[in-house]
Each structure stands twice: as structure tokens, then as C-alpha cells.
Amino acid sequence: MATERRKGDRTTGIPVDDWNEFCRTSKRVDQLVKNPVIPGQQSADAALTILVINKTDAAIDADFPILKISPLFTTEDRDTAFYDGIVFKGETPDTDTAIEDIAILQRPTTDGGACAGVITGYTWCDVEVTDESHTHAAPSDGENTKLTSGSSGAAIAWKESGTGTKKAIVRMGGGGSGGSTNLFRVKITVDVSPRSDWTLAGAGTGKAVTVNDDGSFGGEFDVLSHYADTLPADNPAWAMNDGSNTWIVNVGCSAGPSE
User: Residue 170: which of 156, 150, 180 has the closest Cα?
Assistant: First the structure.
């Protein structure tokens, strides 16, 4: 695992503060991999964070910036990109931005700064409450400091009373009314084989079922993996659908795609 550096250390081309934020985020994700949670367990909705680089061309002086995310680099940029881990760039939401497209950063950020962003689980944020009866919140065009209340998006677990800009606790990735998410909980039912290479044809194969919010299970479906080791049946995991295939992206074992 990457280790934090002291001021003045220039062994990488990344500023020390940004590198250290990446290390801390990496440790939190690694902890989730080693100690996964499923509904019914304590802290079953522990937040999952990713590293986000602010690419809005301006600092965002908000407690919980709202950014539309996309990969900072992929194998289209260079063939060995997967060796560098996964880092996302964050831009101001636009009219096409859905709740599953954003991360809620956990502190104000400078222009080009790196910060942990929540993509699933509970998190604080600011919400522009237009009606106290609203139960959800979603991103708005041109707004990177808060969500806007409504009937779809992230479910609001709690919010301050009244209308206007209010502090709230929302649940990202919960499949709220009118919304959806590509990241969801599953349970592996048939061992997922290890990858043979990094191509689609070389991906490991297996089966899993969806884990619903009430702890029940959905139907069985095929899954793919780029993990180096076999992923045993009965493991809880996170999965993501890319529109064509469902991939295991976080599991209850130490092996991972970078190994």
C-alpha cells in the first residue's frame, strides 16, 4: 500500500498534500475490502469513497462540494493505466448529471486539489430545500456546492427544518425513488475464476445475486472480474454494471485488481 510522505519529499510528481490524501483514501477503501458489510450488520451502510481531483478550474469553498465524476485516465490514455489505481476528475454538474454521476466531497477543495468523495452510503451535504415535504435530493445544473430537494435522487435520511440551504444527511447509492445507481451490493453464489489477462475475454467469470436493502436476495446473474485470485462463493461484494456486463469491484478478500 502507498505510504504518506513528508513535506519536501519529491519522489513522485504529485504534491505532498494530494499524495497523502490519496493514501488516506486508499487505506479507507482497503479497509472496506477487508471488512465488507451487508444489510443487517452494524454500519451496514458505511460510506464508500473514491479519490476526486477538482477540475472545475476554481476552488470550491463549500463544506461538501458536489462534483460530476469521470475517470481521470484510462487505458485509452496509456496501456498501463491500471497500474496507477483509479482516480476520478470532478467537474461542475450539468443538465445531464444524475445522482449516480456525482461524488460528494468531504471538505472544501482548491483548484486541482484532491479529496475523498462519497459515492455510496450515508454522508453529510448541503441541500437547497424548496419544499419541506421533499424526501430526496439531486444535483442541479451549474451547482457544485449543494444538492436540490425533490422526489428523486439520494434519499434524505435527515435534514434541518425549514426551506433554503440546509444541512442534511443523505444516502448515496440507495436506489432512491426515480433514481438508480451502477454500484450495488451482491453476494457471490458461484466461485468467480481469476483473470487470465486484462482483456474482456480474459476476465474471470462466476455468478452472484443482488442483496436488497431488507437483506433478501434477488435472482442469480453472471458476473465478471479482473481480480488475480478466485473470489469464493458466499462472499459479500460490491458490483457495477457497465451497460453490457456486471463486474465485481470490491470484495471480502485481500486480492484486488492491482495485484
Answer: 156
* Under-70 pLDDT residues of the chain: 1-46, 84, 174-183, 242-243, 252-259
Q: Give the integer Cα–Cα distance in Å for 16 and 11.
A: 10
Nearest residue to 139 via CA among 191, 91, 77: 91
3-state secondary structure 79-112: CCHHHHCCCEEEECCCCCCCHHHEEEECCCECCC
pLDDT digits (tens, 9 = 90+) for 129-138: 999 889 899 9
pTM of the model: 0.55
Residue 245 neighbours by CB distance under 10 Å: 13
C-alpha cell at 259: 495485484
Domains of the chain with CATH codes: 16-172 (no CATH), 183-251 (2.40.50)
Angle formed at CA 204 by CA 190 and CA 39, multiple of 5 degrees:
50
Q: Which residues have C-beta within 8 Å of that of residue 99, sequence separation ≥ 6?
A: 138, 139, 152, 153, 154, 172, 176, 179, 181
**What pLDDT is attached to residue 101?**
92
Angle (CA) 63-68-70 rounded to 5° is 130
Joined together, the cell numbers standing for residue 105 give: 466531497
Question: CB within 8 A of 120, min separation 6: which ones?
Answer: 47, 48, 172, 173, 174, 181, 183, 238
